[in-house]
Amino acid sequence: MTMALQPLPIRPAEAASIYRGVEAGQFGLGGGGAAFGAMLDTAVKGTIATLGRAETASMAGLSGHADVTDVVTAVSKAELTLQTAMTIRDRVVQAYQEIIKMPI
Hints:
The protein contains 3 helices and no strands.
């Protein structure tokens, strides 16, 4: 069973910033690898932050200082984010393998 690609949770302000970057050509072919690397860096940092919030919420829930709904929500967001990151990683590896197979 294949999983559908789920979007990373993103705030409206972040989406607007990325959109402005795309309009300015920062993430296009002319933008260079540095802009793409920065975008990936931002996504990885966001993933790490989401996983950290889930861990903090879980610890607070175990100690009895957090509502169960908040813990479940944080863990669900972390699970979705991790699944998305794994799917993106798999797609990047697949793309790399396809590039390697191309004749020069």
